[in-house]
Structure formats: structure tokens, C-alpha cells
């Protein structure tokens, strides 16, 4: 079988419509497919097979697809949704949204003169078929609607927008039919994302069964391409067996007043709870206010008072002093200027209580409130320099204790506190006073395909001796550029902040002797470029920060965009609830690279579906000169080990850092600094004024990437100084 010839495909995955599901009335549907790749291993080559999920345009009427995109109803009246003129005319911004969604889609159209043709959508017209004029070959000027009428194909909807090809041909939507099997690159809305996740989620036994079926579908033994190259692929209905080991759950330390000073998370899923525990370093609430962006008939003053009481009591239960039991609460219109609404509430508190709040709690509606949330964060983190915490109506009303403990985790971290730390006795790799260590995490977030918008890079770093408190630096760079161009200045600032915090807060004047750098978002093909460019920038940052001697650097690339799936063979090796591997499972042989230092670590307990381990590639270079680095790295040996980290030590380090994620009471799937860097990147839009959002650049725009970057830089606002040394991104 030749899958890529017989089925729609993307890179190393191909898809079939035998198993599919609609995606929440978006005009899209999810198809199940199969992923395949060839991986090197010791003494052999392996074929890696997994199931994958693709998003496709629904085939059929283009007109109905457009209606579903806007309303979720393919039977809606087109004159009410897509009309060009009149009181119900489609707004230009909505037309551009639809245009971006449909750009590049192939449709089949039956021409009034030349029969069926395969066409590609380039844009949508701002005029309808009744008023769009053209001159057909050998004829007189006529409108598109008249042209079809003269061919006895009168249009039902001559007053709605049309599609246009790159050559300028204008075709009515009702005469176009979407060709089956077209992958979509459109960003999914929250409802569609949930539907996609639900479709793709499979328990371990279900996923393994689907993969085994895939082996039969792929039928390598019947492929003439495999035979022509003289290859023999040995397939089996059973997966390959490999050895693994399980690291113990990290021992954690909480604060004074706790029932136990230290505790160990559950070995089955890496979780714990905060009952009878106090934060390691709890921060007082100080002055706080509550702003309700919901109407009183949906969340009454009594609801507000109970919410305030529950929040305060549960924060006190984990050690946070709450001196103001009944803070000011005010109702505001969510459609108003959010910055002004919050500022008015702050001024009211100053007038009535003579204090300025250090925390603003905002009650927001359920459902999609992305714009409101973004505006609140822009006001607090960027404009005002005050911590904000959003609570959804449906979750905070009559919430249970665990919900409030989770909220307290976020608030304490935002105010400068520390929730729990790794017990120094079991995590000396980070807290060893003889080897002061700074841990950094970096990520880059790219714009959607076809967009000219810039990419956002974030670097976070620990500033305390426990690897528990972090600060972040962000930057804009050219769209789709993977290398972090400003890494030198960002890392320098983080190094100086680390030394300043250790000196002022921990009363220890010391230089970091070790710098552990976790890098996310790098494909295997980019490893060498990242090393060639970013490693020297880290060395230069150490020189700029006047670190003498400079710290020893370990550079680790972390990835989850792989399709290596692991299934426990025996019941004793799996979580009884989810069927997944136990947290702490390490695989470093059998399927790892034969000449490079890499390993897989599953540090978290699976909640839904089949857990995916993180893949760690550690880069190696023994203190080589920067100028010779590129020549010496031609084979891309991936271990940078300047001070003798053993494989076991690095694996323990990665596992340890998966237990310090501040807003969770369970271990996470990637090291905390990597997780934080990803969160900081995802909050990039909060840096723009919601009242003057960055100029949108649609497909086919006139600005170059450089011009777009400059436009965005002019509208991008940094984090407020008062928040820049705190974990505002919690």
C-alpha cells in the first residue's frame, strides 16, 4: 500500500475518513490517521507508528460551509449572513475572517459555459454577483448574475459575496463545492478544540489497539517501494518491548504550621493536596478589591460576599494572612473600557478606605471571555503593576475547598510567595550551596500559517536557591524565526536578577556556578542551528554579567511533539485508574539514539487518554572555543556537559523540576521553567492595548515581515516594573 498516494497526508501522517467527527459547527471535521517515521537505534532501524488526528474542511456546498462557519447552521438564510449591502450587510472584518479561513481551499465549480473546473479560492469579493461586471470572451459586458441567468442557471442568491481565484475569476458561492480530503490550518475556537481533544483522546489499551490495526493498514510487506529498495521490514502485531525504570516521587517541603514538614506525592499519579499543609513562604493579601464583570441578576451581592469569605478563609488555611475580611466589591460592565473600570474601582477604594490594592480579583462570565480576560491582564500586568486573579462565575459560586486551594496557589505565587519546594535533602542537584544553580527555560511561539505577524520568545529563570521562584523576559522577533535573537540581553538581565535576589532576599552573595538551560519548541532539524547561535549567546551573557568564573552550562532540548508512545506491560507498572505508565518512568535504551544522549521521561500521571512522555536531548561540548564550535558540531552530538553531570543526575534533575510548577498540586509533564516559558509566550497579546489592538495582517497583506515586526514593536508594551520581578504569568 502507498498511503500518501491514496490518502490525504501531511508530512509523515496520512488520514482516512473512515473514522471522523464534526468539530462543533465550524465547517470542519476531525479525521483519524496514522503517523509513521524511521528512527535510528542501536544495531538497527526502527519504524515508529502512531495514530494521529487531522482537521479537514467538510466537503460539499461552499455556501453551506460559509453559513456553518458563522452560525453553526448550514440551513441559515444566506441573505441574512452574507449579503453585501443593506442593513444586514456582512461587516468587512467578518468577511476577512471568512477569507482567511477559506484561503487556498480547492473547490469544484460548474461553469455556465465550460463545465466543471477545479479552482482554488484566493479571496472573497466585496461586491455581489448582481453588481460584479466582466466581459466574457467574444461578448459584451455583463454581470456575473446575468451571465449565469443567460445560461439557464439563475442564481438563488445574487446579492451575497462571491469567491475569486488568483486569476480574477469571480464565482458565486452557490456554484462551488468543496473537494473532499482538504486539511485545514485554521486555528480552532475553544468549542472546536474541546471536540478535537475528545475525538483524539484514547485510553492506552484503545490507542494500542488502533496502532496494531494501523500496522495492518500500512502493510509494509506488500509495498513495492519497500521491495524495490531491497528492504525487509519485520512487523508484528505486538509492540516492541523495552526496559525502563521508575524514579521515586520527589519529596516536597511545605511551611511552618503544617502537619508534616515534608511529604511525598502519590507514586501512582504524582499528586498531593494542601489539606493540613501551609505554603512554604505565604504572602499576605494586604489590600484587595473585587470587581464583578457580571450582572447582579446572575451573581448577586450575597453571592459576592460568600465568594469573598470562601476565598479568604481558604487562603488563610494554607497560611496566607488575610487582614481585610470584607474588601470593596463593585459591579462593572464587561463591555466597557476595562482599564477605566478597574481604575475607577481602585480610586473608589482609595477614597473610601484610604488604601491602594495590591490584588484585584475579577469575577468574569462563563464561556468565551477571552477579550475580557486579556484586557484585565493588560490593565494589571502592563498598565497598573498590580496582581490580578480572574474567577469564572460558574466555578467560584459554591466552590469546593480544592478549587479555592488551587486559586490560592496562583495568588500566592503572583504576590511573591513560594508554595512548596523540593526537599533540599532529596534535591541537592538544585539546592547545593557549594554549586549555586540557575535554571532557565526558553520557548518561541509562532503566528498562524500565512500570517505575517511576529513570533514571540520568552526566557524564564529561577532566582532563588530552590528553583521555585521565577521571573520572565519576553521579546518580539521575525515571524517563524526559531532562534531567540535577543537571548544575550535577556539572559544577562536574568543572571543579574538571580544574583540580586540571592543577595537581598537570601543574604547570600554568590555567583551561579551552574546554568541549566531548557529549550522548548525546537525540531530535530533545527538542533544544530540552535546550538550554533544560542549557546554562544549564553556564554556572552555570562561575560556581560561579569561572572568570573563563568557558570558551567548544560543545554537540554525538551520536546513533546513526537509520536513515541509507551504502554505498560504489567499491571504493577501502571496507574490503576488511567492505565498509563507510572510517573517517573525513564526510557534511555532500546529506542533512543545510538550515538547521542537522549532519553524519554514520563514525569506526570495521566488524566485523560494515553500520556505522552517528554523527550530530552542533552547537548555535549567540552569547553570548545566558540569560533570552532560549528566545525566541531558537524555530527550534532547533543550533550553539553562541562562539569560532569551523569545521565542519572540529569534525569533526576528533569524529574525534580516537574514537581515545582506553582499552580498545580501534581507533577507536570515538562520541567517547570519550560512550562512557564510556554505560558509567557501564550500571553503575548496581553502586551497590546485592547483599545488599539495590533494591526492585523491577513493573508496576502502588503506589509513585509520586517515592516510588520516594526509595527508590532511600536504597539508592544513591556511588563510593568512592579510586576517584572514577580510571577505575574500565574
Automatic annotation (TrEMBL):
Name of one Pfam family that matches: ArgoMid
Q: Which CDD domains match?
A: PAZ_argonaute_like, Piwi_ago-like
Q: Which residues form the Piwi domain?
A: 359-689
Query: Which SMART domains does the record associate with it?
Result: DUF1785, Piwi
Report domain PAZ positions. Answer: 92-180
One GO molecular function term of this record is: RNA binding
> SUPFAM superfamilies from the xrefs?
PAZ domain (SSF101690), Ribonuclease H-like (SSF53098)
The source's superkingdom equals: Eukaryota
> What is the protein name stated in its UniProt record?
Ribonuclease H-like domain-containing protein
